[in-house]
Design a protein that fits this description.
Number of strands: 7
GO molecular function: sulfotransferase activity
Number of helices: 17
Strand order of the largest sheet: 5-4-6-7
EC number: 2.8.2.-
Oligomer: single chain
Largest sheet: 4 strands, parallel
Mean pLDDT: 87
Protein name: Sulfotransferase
Pfam family, one: Sulfotransfer_1
Keywords: Coiled coil, Transferase
Shape: globular
Order of helices and strands: HHEEEHEHHHEHEHHHEHHHHHHH
Helix content: 40-55%
Structural class: alpha/beta
Distance between the termini: 49 Å
Length: about 350
């Protein structure tokens, strides 16, 4: 007998439940839930939507993590240029250690293997690691909303948080096409229209997207020395100026001599979409990210187009109107706006 969509979801949920701790199971039954993109369900936890494994990791992170004064945290909502930001920050911070030649780690390692995710790697699978051996400055990445970060990380005057934000139109398209590849065969597929509705309703990992973006944006206005807010579209338009700002914020400013020697351009080229996409490690390798837990995943899934405005090839007029109105409503009065092309 062929399983029905309902039984498939039940089977997938049962498999997922086997990996949950008793504490997490007790918590999940108290939380609102909706259909998930990669898992049977996502749950509203601490005000945002998350998958069970992520919730477990975030709880451990909030309980055990202690910030170091030189920590760097790279924050994004999924599919907003995370891989690019990891590469750029790693290259800037380590530029004295590595030259942009054949021995650079970015030529042989995926950026996700060089800058670990807090919730998907460091605290994944019930790990409570000793982070004292991490090279200083420690560089971490996260999709966790600002309000849910560990308290010492938020209170620190020296921890540097960099948030990269992408326009919600392109973010949705990138999320939809990426998560389609990761959705297990045991779960029934859902349509582009259904996914769009879920996105607009806020039912996406770490969403709603507008709350995630505004959380970091508002903090960057209050404490600009603590949170740097960058826009994907601005970086695509003028990477050199943005890398100059990023280097200064991180405490690794580019000297006049470095600028004259073209060091900023070298880093921009090393970390460019086209360069990273063509590296063998990113064409056929697999990143060691615990959250993927998917033998079919390839690094090339992380490199699709990297363009601004690709959404015009996917949206119909009613979708454009709906998302435009939603953004107008949610971002009204905040000062946050986006270039769509």
């Amino acid at each position: 007998m062929t399983p029905t969509p309902t039984t498939e979801v039940a089977m997938a949920a049962a498999e997922e439940e086997e990996e949950e701790t008793e504490e997490l199971k007790e918590l999940l039954v108290t939380l609102p839930k909706e259909k998930g993109w990669r898992t049977p369900f996502i749950y509203k936890f601490q005000g945002f939507w998350s998958q069970p494994k992520e919730i477990q990791s975030i709880l451990s992170f909030q309980k055990h993590f202690k910030t170091s004064e030189s920590d760097v945290v790279l924050a994004t909502i999924p599919k907003s240029g995370t891989t690019w930001l990891k590469a750029l920050a790693f290259a800037i911070i380590n530029r004295k250690r590595y030259s942009n030649t054949q021995n650079h780690p970015l030529l042989t390692s995926n950026p996700h293997d060089l800058v670990p995710f807090i919730e998907y790697e460091i605290y994944a699978n019930n790990q409570v690691p000793d982070l004292s051996d991490f090279a200083q400055p420690r560089i971490f990445a996260t999709h966790i909303p600002y309000h849910a970060l560990e308290e010492s990380m938020k209170k620190s005057d020296t921890t540097k948080i960099v948030y990269l934000c992408r326009n919600p139109f392109d973010t949705f398209i990138s999320s939809w096409l990426f998560l389609k590849k990761l959705r297990p065969e045991s779960l029934p597929q859902f349509s582009f229209e259904e996914a769009f509705k879920m996105y607009c309703d806020g039912f996406i990992g770490c969403g709603p997207f507008w709350e995630h973006m505004l959380g970091y944006y508002n903090e960057s206005l209050k404490r600009p020395q603590h949170v740097l807010f960058l826009k994907y579209e601005d970086m695509k338009e003028d990477i050199v100026s943005n890398l100059r700002v990023l280097g200064g914020f991180l405490g690794f400013p580019f000297s006049l001599e470095e600028e004259r020697e073209g060091v900023i351009e070298d880093i921009a080229n090393l970390c460019s979409f086209d360069k990273l996409k063509e590296l063998e490690v990113n064409k056929s390798g697999k990143a060691a990210m615990a959250f993927l837990n998917n033998s079919n995943f390839e690094n090339n899934y992380l490199f699709r187009k990297g363009q601004v405005g690709d959404w015009v090839n996917h949206f119909n007029p009613s979708m454009v109107n709906k998302l435009s109105q939603l953004m107008e409503d949610k971002f009204q009065g905040s000062g946050l706006s986006f270039k769509l092309h």
